[in-house]
Design brief:
By secondary structure, this protein is α+β, with helices and mostly antiparallel strands. The protein is built from 24 helices and 25 strands. Strands 1, 3, 4, 6, 8, 9 and 11 form a seven-stranded mixed β-sheet that branches. The longest helix has 36 residues. The radius of gyration is 39 Å and the shape is elongated. Pfam families: 7TMR-DISM_7TM, 7TMR-DISMED2.
Length: 765
């Protein structure tokens, strides 16, 4: 019985072998035939055999049947010879083509000995110019001559220092056109998905200015380029160059690797959460960028195994990084871990198809692109989650319950407030009894410290109210300019370090805040207190109101720079510094972005606000006591300014010579009111000399406006000369009233302040 089973087994094998096609036939019923079913192959490892040797009877017996649809030989050091017999039996004159789908093949020679003996009929491959192809398509296509005998022999020689994967078929012209349409349709779908992701990414980058989205866009471009090179759809752009497909493939693959490394830093904020791993990611990105240049310039001098090892080892390290981040509960690390595991698994399967371990043409042609698109979709989902406020709050919640935290804050504020009241009462009593100047100075410092403690209690209570969803209510609308003044005065009252703060405002006049005014004021105060410098360096705070956008939202932009080195965003800490500021911004439904340049670190905050705009009037100007002084020669511009100022109740003076103006100003302490000085750049006056003479005589609240018809004069240069603002003569009628109103408001604000002046921002077009 055993012998019968063995005999049956060998009989089945022999039947399978002999039933295989030995001739590739194209007729009226078969419009395509895979050469793997009829062909045989022989490997010349030494690359010394000529076509005459291969076609001889001695080597004809050494050919082995292929007997598979997809030819995957992996890395072969030598020439692969493929031989098959072909019969064309179509009744119509339908063109028949030989199609070799092997985009990374370097050398392909085609022989038809029955027609042309030992002469090679086509020399194709990536190591040869694209113009060598008779039919310019992504694959290597060779038209079968019409004068062939009923049965003829075809020889192919394949050679490459890259893994050889090929799908060789005989097709009619119509069949090949249908297959190309299917491939192009699927490619168009994949490129369309990448394009949609890229457009969304550009939108997020323009909205948030986060470099993470810019790097992500580079990654998407690399994916698209990588897919096109895998299908050899870029060589036609460089018809006279060789190895173009391989060079662009190497550049795209390693550029994607570099982008993934730097994208990972920003996606998980490794600089904050995993500082050691952050340095590793920087090194990985730099190494990938270096090898991208090397493999692009000289791809043939380096082993392709080194490229594969570099990519695989990098993906493994990034996966380890994802696991560590997930274990340490880094925000949004779950999305990142899923994306890393997806890419590692998909790339590993694709790599096995490249080296012939998994024989699959579909996996080789489409597997990598589909895998990376899935990974990109996972990253994109995570990035959307990072921009969703509800998910941000969920990711940043503390380990303690909400009830425990609010109880702690309430108890802490009540205990501190009782002690502060006792200390404040004692200091007030001592202040009345103090006699010496040293004692008064000490008491003033103590009162300032007590005020700071009161401010800390206010922060705790406000934070507690927000966490309990009971924020302070706003009884009536509050002018935004008044809100800024209150915040500025409170910062001055709490200052213990003689800090320098340059507070700039733009388009904040006649604006009433209808909602969340107390919280907004606390936010401005906290920004000034937390970001101030303990040196002579000035902290600049810009406050700008943007007009209503298409969504019907008015935005208030707060920009602070340069930030001290101690300031950083830590999403895991719970404190009254950056956490408090971040919590206020989240409650106001705003966005915060921290940017780091080469020399300056800055923070930008955008808050949606509900406002009411008051009509512009001169009521405020008529109430103040600041004088208006015009200095310059009488010309059309000065007369126009005088005409515009006739409706103001302020005292207006005009001086033609600088000496008379200086004599009028006299010493600053002898003047009863401050002045708004309008300096006209006419009549030969030199602005910087005029300002040098004026500055020693100006009071703290004095403002100086330069009115010039010099188109080369810039606001930055005017401020360097010492002027507070710059106004072009052509803008007198449209801007003088608003400019004068802002300068008077600033002068009134600075009248009793000891901090830096509040200067307006440059007017944007």
């Amino acid at each position: 019985m055993l012998y019968r089973l063995i005999l049956l087994f060998f009989l089945c094998i022999s039947n399978t072998v002999w039933s295989a096609n030995t001739i590739a036939i194209i007729d009226d019923t078969n419009s395509a035939f895979n050469i793997g079913h009829s062909g045989s192959y022989f490997i010349d490892n030494a690359q010394t055999l000529s076509f005459s040797d291969i076609a001889s009877d001695e080597y004809a017996k050494r050919f082995r049947p292929i007997n598979r649809d997809y030819l995957q030989f992996g890395l072969v050091k030598g020439n692969i010879w493929i031989r098959t017999d072909i019969a064309i039996r179509t009744t119509s004159n339908t063109p028949v083509l030989l199609e070799v789908n092997s985009p990374r093949l370097q050398y392909l020679d085609i022989y038809l000995p029955n027609l042309y003996e030992n002469q090679v009929q086509a020399e194709l491959g990536g190591a040869r110019p694209y113009k060598n192809r008779k039919i310019q398509t992504p694959n290597y296509v060779f038209p079968i001559p019409t004068n062939t005998p009923p049965v003829f022999t075809l020889y192919l020689r394949l050679s490459s220092h890259l893994p050889i994967n090929a799908e060789i078929e005989l097709k009619t012209l119509s069949n090949m056109s249908l297959d190309n349409q299917k491939n192009l349709t699927f490619t168009g779908i994949l490129i369309g998905i990448l394009l949609a992701l890229f457009v969304c990414n550009v939108f997020f980058f323009l909205k948030t200015s986060r470099s993470m989205y810019l790097i992500y866009g580079v990654f998407l471009i690399g994916i698209a380029t990588l897919h096109l090179t895998l299908h050899d759809q870029v060589s036609q752009l460089f018809p006279n160059q060789i190895n173009v497909q391989e060079r662009i493939y190497n550049l795209a693959a390693l550029s994607c690797l570099c982008a993934i490394a730097f994208f990972s830093r920003l996606y998980l904020d490794t600089k904050e959460h995993l500082p050691k791993m952050d340095k590793v990611l920087i090194a990985i990105g730099a190494i990938a960028a270096l090898f991208a240049i090397i493999f692009t310039i000289s791809p043939e001098k380096l082993n392709v195994m080194a490229l594969s090892f570099l990519i695989v080892s990098t993906l493994i390290m990034l996966t380890v990084h994802a696991i560590v981040a997930f274990i340490k509960n880094v925000p949004f690390s779950g999305y990142y871990l899923v994306a890393r595991l997806t890419l590692l698994t998909g790339h590993f399967a694709w790599l096995m198809s490249v080296y012939g371990i998994i024989p699959s043409a579909t996996l080789f042609q489409w597997g990598l692109t589909v895998t990376i698109i899935i990974e990109a979709m996972i990253h994109f989902t995570g990035m959307i989650a990072q921009t969703t406020p509800s998910l941000q709050r969920r990711a940043k919640k503390t380990k303690h319950s909400q009830t425990e935290m609010t109880d702690l804050l309430s108890d802490l504020s009540s205990r501190l407030r009782r002690q502060i009241n006792i200390i404040g009462g004692g200091l007030s009593h001592l202040e009345q009894a103090a006699a010496s100047n040293d004692t008064k100075l000490f008491l003033n410092s103590s009162m300032t410290a007590n005020n700071n403690l009161k401010n800390l209690i206010e922060r705790i209570e406000l934070l507690n109210d927000i966490k309990e969803s009971t924020p302070p209510e706003q009884a009536a609308p509050l002018l935004l300019s008044q809100l800024i003044d209150n915040a500025y005065n409170n910062v001055q009252r709490l200052d213990q370090d003689n800090t320098l703060i340059d507070l700039n405002t733009y388009k904040t006049d006649q604006v009433e805040i209808l909602h969340n005014a107390p919280i907004l004021q606390h936010l401005i105060e906290s920004l000034a207190q937390e970001f101030k410098h303990f040196t002579d360096q000035t902290l600049t705070i810009n406050i700008t109101r943007h007009d209503v956008n298409r969504e019907g939202i008015t935005l208030l932009e707060l920009s602070c720079y340069p930030l001290p080195a101690r300031v950083y965003t830590n999403t895991t800490s719970f404190d009254l510094g950056m956490h408090y500021i971040t919590h206020l911004i989240q409650h106001l439904k705003g966005e915060m972005h921290l940017s780091e340049g080469d020399l300056t670190r800055s923070i930008n905050i955008q808050l949606p606000i509900r406002v009411h705009i008051r009509p512009l009037n001169n009521h405020f100007i008529q109430q103040n006591q600041l004088d208006i002084i015009l200095f310059g020669q009488e010309d059309n511009d000065l007369q126009k300014a005088l005409t515009l100022l006739q409706s103001h109740a302020n005292r207006i003076e005009h001086f033609v010579t600088l000496e008379s103006l200086l004599e009028h100003l006299g010493l600053p302490e002898k003047r009863e009111a401050g002045s708004i000085i309008l300096v006209f750049d006419n009549g030969g006056h030199i602005p910087h000399i005029t300002q040098q003479r004026l500055i020693p005589l100006m009071r703290h609240e004095d403002q100086c406006l330069l009115i010039s018809n010099n188109v080369k004069m810039s606001l930055d240069y005017a401020k360097k000369l010492g002027f507070n603002e710059l106004l072009a003569c052509s803008e007198l009628e449209s801007q003088l009233e608003q400019m004068l109103l802002r300068l008077i408001q600033k002068g009134d604000r600075l009248k009793n302040a000891s901090l830096s002046r509040i200067k307006p921002l440059r007017k944007t077009p």
